[in-house]
TrEMBL record:
PANTHER family: PTHR48408, XYLOSE ISOMERASE. It comes from Tropicimonas isoalkanivorans. The active site is at residues 102, 105. GO terms for biological process: D-xylose metabolic process. This is Xylose isomerase. NCBIfam families: PRK05474.1, xylose_isom_A.
Length: 436
């Protein structure tokens, strides 16, 4: 280890279900085969740089509680280097194969965009060396175009074209560094791409700006040979009243409108799905149905709070349904499970950061094993197939293929007397509980 922040803590190891050590894995055995593939290769865990190393423990009603040593000092670049040392110590202690970052997480902005880009590339030099020695890879990079006051009215959707141009310069640099570090995806989270009131908003103008911005990013991706997808992360609200990337369905409509479906997918977060009024499973299933599934930010919200709490995912039944959907569709391609989650502001000890990741990694592994067993037994797929079995018959297939007119189908309707069949919801909920 390069620092003493996690002094005295050994790397997390799989010790089996009898272990009571909070820094050991009870279910996550990375080399265990699940449906013919290593557990590590299924889950593709990624540690998020921002919540783990840049969030000070603040909330809307109080300031810093975590008091990390790299958060205070006069030499911003030296603090960034210290933060990188601690970050890679954590990645190696956890054994995560990936990490993810925003540009502003890893490098100070300085006094200009030119200086910011230089700082980012200097830290990328450090990352390159650490990634080579540790074997940790980059799941995705992104640009933070929402924290600085220049973005108070949006980045790509800003009414000022100079802000739009600044955003282009920032995202180009972030994309360049992501490619340089072998990132497997590039994420766009439009934290302020939305509006507070329609009284001062030209809705069509802003949508066209956002469409052009993403189109240019796709063009640039191809120009530099970046192979991974661009991922949009849907979020319904907070900080703006209405976000243009509200949920998966909204993003799909936007991508379709601007001809971006071939290159842009979605990065889905549990907390955002709930804020949009959907279940996590709904958003993932819809993304697969529409052909735009990309990756997952794995966390959870608090059902009693109507904002983005970004807690570590611990709900095994919910995760089991998530993994059931992912396994059923062939597993991740370039995506993974990124811990866009933060410890609570009262969890101030360094080991709390490790314990949170270990516990959530175990919950994900347990959900994966439950999903594997459910798929083997056709526990959910069997009843689902039975419910829609009638549509596999030749005549219904002809209807779906467009080979029958409304009049022809209506004539058949005159000859039938269908009776309702039970949806068996409670039975299926009981089935799920047997596996988790």
């Amino acid at each position: 280890m390069k620092t003493d922040f996690f002094s005295g803590i050994e790397p997390a190891q799989y010790k089996g279900t009898d272990s009571t050590d909070p820094l050991s894995f009870r279910y996550y055995d990375k080399d265990r085969k699940v449906m013919g593939r290593r557990m590590e290769d299924h889950l593709r865990f990624s540690a998020a740089y921002w919540h783990s190393f840049t969030w000070p423990g603040s909330d809307p009603f109080g300031g810093e509680t975590l008091n990390r040593p790299w958060m205070h000092g006069d030499d911003a670049m030296e603090l960034a280097r210290q933060k990188a040392d601690v970050a890679f110590d954590m990645f190696e202690l956890l054994g995560v194969p990936y990490f993810a970052f925003h540009d502003i997480d890893v490098a100070p902005e300085g006094g200009s965009l030119r200086e910011f880009n230089a700082n980012l590339n200097a830290i990328a030099d450090i990352f390159e060396s650490k990634m080579q020695s540790s074997g940790v890879k980059l799941l995705w990079g992104t640009a933070n175009m929402f924290s600085h006051r220049r973005f108070m009215s949006g980045a790509a959707t800003n009414p000022d074209p100079d802000v739009f141009a600044y955003a282009c310069g920032q995202v180009k640099a972030a994309m360049d560094v992501t490619k340089r570090l072998g990132g497997e995806n590039y994420v766009c989270w439009g934290g302020r791409e939305g509006y507070e009131t329609l009284l001062n908003t030209n809705l069509k103008q802003e949508l066209d700006q956002l469409g052009r911005f993403l189109s240019m990013l796709v063009e640039y991706k191809h120009k530099i040979g970046f192979d991974g997808p661009i991922l949009i992360e849907p979020k319904p609200k907070e900080p703006t009243k209405h976000q243009y990337d509200y949920d998966v369905a909204t993003v799909y409509g936007f991508l379709s409108r601007y001809g971006l479906l071939d290159d842009v997918k979605v990065n889905i977060e549990q907390n955002h799905a709930i804020l949009a009024g959907h279940s996590f499973d709904h958003e993932v299933r819809l993304a697969y149905a529409l052909g735009i599934f990309g990756s997952i930010d794995i966390n959870r919200g608090d059902d009693l709070l109507g904002w983005d709490t970004d807690q570590f995912a611990m709900n095994v039944p919910e995760i089991a349904l998530l993994m059931h959907e992912i396994l059923k569709n062939g597993g991740f391609q370039t995506g993974g499970l990124n811990f866009d989650a933060k410890i609570r502001r009262q969890s101030i000890d360094p080991q709390d950061l490790l314990i949170a990741h270990v516990a959530s990694m175990d919950a994900c592994a347990r959900g994966l094993l439950a999903a594997e067993k459910m798929l083997e037994d056709k526990a959910l797929e069997g009843p689902l197939a039975d419910r829609y079995a009638g549509w596999s018959e030749p005549e219904p297939q002809a209807i779906l293929a467009g080979e029958r007119s409304l009049e022809e189908v209506a004539m058949k309707g005159l000859e039938t007397s269908p009776q309702p069949r039970s949806g068996r919801q409670e039975y299926l909920e009981g089935v799920l509980n047997r596996y988790v």
